[in-house]
Design goal:
Blueprint lengths: L10 H23 L4 H6 L12 H6 L6 H32 L5 H10 L5 H14 L10 H4 L8 H11 L5 H8 L4 H12 L1 H17 L2 H6 L8 H5 L11 H21 L1 H9 L6
Length: about 280
């Protein structure tokens, strides 16, 4: 900006501010509602409460026979194990599709991409029947149906993301590793794996956020209160008689968003870097 000229707001800046306000309004309203009394939540549409009710947070934390922190730990365990499973299995599958040569490789890769067109809700019934036959539903380890499938590279999106990234790594590096006596496994361990860090970080971030926010699959497979995750536990604030504790529910909803928000902020730079280097841009 040249000296002597008064600063002004461009129409683009105004449009961006308006869009930002529209996007953030529900989140800000939820935070404000977490400090409102139940009657005020239903009657007051303003963001800030007329009467602050911080008791919603301790009431929500101790609302059930199990402290809400237990649900946080369950969600963190499921999300963390899912991240490890996705990063491991999808990386190995992507390496096979991107760097190894085997019969019908293109056909199987097309089949894998085709699974992206299949809604996950279509598979929930046959998966439930299969997992129940394994004794995983309602058993001592109810989290197995939520974690084990990710060990088999069932998330085709992450496999595709990593394949696109590995295709950008020069094959001359593989040839140089073979000249030095490296096998396919050694080339993967010492060449591909260190260079795949951006794609792995992107996979880890998306896996954590999607698993933490997952509700339907966790509702289907979890039936014990002590095993509930945070998204499922939030529904318990509204019981079958129509009685609801909306204040504590909003308070716990705000706390449930905090891990996802902090996780995204902490790895935002790596996420952008990973997406820009995996062929998903433009």
């Amino acid at each position: 900006m040249t000296a002597g000229r008064r600063p002004f707001i461009t129409p683009r800046a105004v449009l961006l501010l308006v869009l930002t306000a529209i996007v953030l309004y529900p989140l800000v309203w939820m935070v404000g509602s977490s400090f409102k009394a139940p009657e005020e939540i239903l009657n007051n549409v303003s963001v800030l409460p007329d009467t602050w009710t911080p008791e919603n947070y301790p009431d929500g934390w101790t609302h059930f026979d199990v402290a809400f922190g237990r649900f946080f730990l369950n969600s963190a365990m499921v999300a963390s194990l899912t991240v490890v499973a996705n990063c491991t299995s999808c990386l190995l599958a992507a390496y096979a599709f991107a760097r190894l040569r085997f019969r019908l490789r293109g056909f199987w890769f097309a089949i894998m991409i085709g699974t992206l067109l299949l809604p996950s809700h279509v598979l929930i019934v046959p998966q439930f029947v299969m997992f129940r036959s394994f004794g995983w539903v309602g058993g001592p380890w109810p989290y197995l149906p939520l974690i084990v499938p990710h060990l088999l590279a069932t998330d085709a999106f992450f496999v595709f993301l990593m394949v696109q990234f590995m295709r950008g790594i020069p094959r001359e590096l593989d040839d140089a590793a073979k000249i030095d006596g490296c096998s396919a496994y050694s080339a993967f361990r010492h060449v591909i794996l260190p260079l795949s860090r951006p794609a792995l970080v992107s996979t880890a971030i998306f896996s954590f956020i999607w698993t933490w926010n997952d509700f339907f699959r966790q509702l289907v497979y979890l039936s014990d209160l002590e095993k509930y995750t945070a998204p499922v536990a939030l529904t318990l604030f509204i019981d079958s008689t129509g009685q609801s504790s909306v204040g504590p529910m909003f308070a716990m909803s705000v706390l449930s968003l905090a891990p996802v928000f902090l996780f995204f902020v902490a790895f935002q730079r790596l996420l952008v870097e990973g997406i820009n280097t995996t062929g998903l841009k433009g």
